[in-house]
Amino acid sequence: MNMLVPSIAESRAFFDNTQLLPSVKKLPGIRSFSGSSELAVAKSDLLLGESVPAAIGFTDNIDEDKKQAAADSIHFAERYADSYSDKDEKPMEWHGKYAQALKHCGWSLTNHKYQDQVSKQTAITMDAIVLDIIKITAGRNAPALTNLLKASFDKIKGDEELLTLFDNNSSKAKDKDFRLIPCLQSPGGTAIATLVAFDCQLSTSQGGAWFWKWKLSNVRMKRVASVMELNMAQHERRRDQIIELLDQNSDDFFKGVKLK
Predict the structure, then answer these.
(1) 3-state DSSP call for residue 122?
(2) 180-206: string of b/e by CB count within 10 Å (b at 16+)?
(3) Would you say the C-alpha torsion 30, 34, 38, 40 has a positive or negative sign?
(4) Burial class (CB in 10 A: 0-12, 13-18, 19+), 74
(5) Which of 10-24, 49-63, 115-129, 232-246 has the lowest mean pLDDT?
(6) What predicted TM-score, i.e. pTM, was given to this entire model?
């Protein structure tokens, strides 16, 4: 399924008729991870959701305004999908709402499909599955995006607080869900990303406390893997409406991390 950017009139009507549920605030006393509380979106290499299992990674060449556009778009998509669908009850509908929000924020999406996948392998890890999907989905951008994800995984795995933050947000008993969005800038200046979303049901596991490290003997996976491209001019026309609907700055919705 290809989801093209809608017309100005369509998006104006979409935003005029949208109301978002209040954001989920982090509970008092929960410690932010070290060194990241003051890091703004535009200065970050990796963004982790404070209360949602979403992570956005940026290659070195991407402009700050495009980082902000990506962060605001994902922030809005997370909030819109939660406001208009129940992910636990209707996951396919929820992912559809997520994609709808992104296209009204200026992104076109290619091959946005919600698919079942079952793996019974015992010697595979979740990060390896994600990297394989990126290699298949991202085309010529796959090398840059896989290198970015590898660096992001290493950063998270090496920091106990980052590990705990993402694990807490992505875990519901044995069920896991997460969204990863590695993003780069093309030679022509266009922001291009791959959206990889997983909803996982694990029957057994081995290994560490965080699900990326587990050796999976049987996992039922539902996934989305979509290539996204930003029309920056259209995003800028909608930016005021996006920001007006959000009751929280994206600098606060995400925690920023430097990879080096």
Answers:
(1) coil
(2) bbbbbbeeeeebbbbbbbbbbebeebe
(3) negative
(4) buried
(5) 115-129
(6) 0.90
What's the token pair of residue 219?
Answer: 């996992």
Domains, the chain, ordered by start: 8-18+45-252 (3.40.198)
CA dist 101 and 134 (Å) reads 22
**Helices 91-104 and 64-84, axial angle in degrees (round to 10):** 140
Sign of the torsion angle spanned by Cα atoms 97, 99, 100, 106 = positive
pLDDT class of 208 with cuts at 50, 70, 90? low
The letter for the amino acid at 234 is: Q
Dihedral Cα 26, 80, 13, 251, nearest 10 deg: 40
What is the rounded distance in angstroms from the CA atom of residue 191 to the CA atom of residue 201?
32
Letter string b/e over residues 10-47, b meaning 16 or more CB atoms within 10 A of that residue's CB: ebeebbeebebeebeeeeeeeeebeebeebebbebbbb
Other Cβ atoms less than 10 A from the Cβ of 214: the count is 19
Pair of tokens at residue 91: 């996951």
Contact in structure between 199 and 223 (CB atoms under 8 Å): yes
Q: Which of 17, 20, 18, 23 is nearest to 250 (CA)?
A: 23
Residue 115's φ and ψ, nearest 5 degrees, are: -125, 150
